[in-house]
Amino acid sequence: MKITLSSCVSLLALSILSLADSVPWERIDRNNSVLLILDLQVGLYQIARDFDHALYHNNMMAHAALGNLFNIPTIMTTSAQTGPNGPLPKEILDMYPDAPLIMRQGEVDAWDNADFRAALEATGKKQVIVAGITTDVCTAFLALSLRAAGYSVFANVEASGTTTPLIRDVSNSRMQQAGVQLVTLFSIVIPWLDKYYPAYGQLARGHGAAVLNGTIIPGQQGLLTPA
User: Fold this and answer.
1) Active site residue: 138, 143, 153, 180, which one?
2) Which residue among 21, 114, 145, 190 sits deepest, i.e. has the most Cβ atoms within 10 Å of its Cβ?
3) 138 is known as an active-site residue
């Protein structure tokens, strides 16, 4: 059988279309979403070197704040936190004093922990927003298990960290091929702002100093002062 360049291009195009059809684009629904704060532990933070450390810390905090900002169920989980991995940052724990905190002792993949599975199933939500350290292990293992269990998974690439950009890129590609939606903070937040103005007010107040030193958008002045 003679293989031509045109036939190879056609086969490649068909495989890409097949992959696209198997994982259609899906809008994140606030009413069907749960936020996972996965192994964003103080000890593990030190090995997240694929981002600037200050920027990555801000991304972690922003990811964690999504649950409160948009009033969506939030589950926290840690891996062997009594060892060098350490606990979650106090700032995150203070955000969710009443949220489930699943302290795993040996399961690398959080899905292998029965308490974690029970907490997730108890929310009744089918869309999972997740970020963790490390991208290639904690985030990827759980994301792939969630996909296999029938969940829609949105991996926040700005709030997951690992040791090198190469490992990050390979891991994100692996998740994407399994149908995990790779998302950024803005791609999570922006579609919801039009519907949930209280959250927009919180964001505006949080950036009040920058707004006041720049140009105030018409209608934004009232948002800078809490009701």
Assistant:
1) 138
2) 145
3) yes
